Amino acid sequence: GAGVSQTPSNKVTEKGKYVELRCDPISGHTALYWYRQSLGQGPEFLIYFQGTGAADDSGLPNDRFFAVRPEGSVSTLKIQRTERGDSAVYLCASSLTPGRDSPLHFGNGTRLTVT
Amino acid sequence: LAKTTQPISMDSYEGQEVNITCSHNNIATNDYITWYQQFPSQGPRFIIQGYKTKVTNEVASLFIPADRKSSTLSLPRVSLSDTAVYYCLAHASQGTGFQKLVFGTGTRLLVSP
Predict the structure, then answer these.
(1) Would you say A104 and A93 are in contact if contact means Cβ atoms under 8 Å apart?
(2) CA distances from residue B50 to A74, A99, B31, B38, B69 in whole angstroms, order as listed
(3) Closest CA of chain A from B16, distance in Å
(4) pLDDT tens for residues B55-78?
């Protein structure tokens, strides 16, 4: 079946601009996660949704970052006033349930480049 | 969340068995051990998970000794397509019931002909 889909696959933007990154999770998965991965590093947790609500947003670096999941399926990560340090691959993952015995299924990410 | 330590890189040849050992000295009673594989330009992919003793699936085996302070991922007869980064994680469900995975830098496995 279809996996986690992320669009766009690549995004180049200028410093100071606003960007939106979209994630389509696997159908029926209630839990959705956003991670960020810099070159040579492992993914870093940003935010977790259970249903429509953000249950844990402790990984968001600052208030320029915001994410929504209005209908409990598709999620959008929004970054305001982008900075060059925001350049990274943004990964979305979903799992059937939030528990540890439900593996995360990751998308291939959106590569964000801020010039 | 238990900190994990694993080799930065490993080299192997096609057809060999590869064992990647991960140290997690401070693992908690509720923590499970999970391994993910990541190819370039792709997101991580779940390989295997275990709590203790041995777990085997169609891809790999996971060996966890009784003290659970380490674990070993075993890949039988690797091929060139097994070249990837392998992440070891020790985690449990959080208070809200979800798993906050903490990835280290992983082990870069290079399989040569």
Answers:
(1) yes
(2) 31, 14, 10, 19, 13
(3) 26
(4) 999 999 999 999 999 999 999 999
Contacts of A101 in chain B (CB under 8 A): 32, 49
B59 CB within 8 Å of a chain A CB: no
Token pair of B88 as six digits: 């070891």
User: Residue B90 and residue B27: Cα distance in Å, rounded?
Assistant: 7
The reply to whether residue A103 touches residue B49, judged by beta carbons under 8 angstroms, is yes
Distance of CA B4 to the CA centre of its chain: 10
Q: What is the pLDDT of residues B92-111, one digit of tens each?
A: 765 556 778 889 899 999 99
Query: Does the beta-carbon distance from A42 to B46 stay under 8 Å?
Result: no
- Token digits for B100? 């906050």
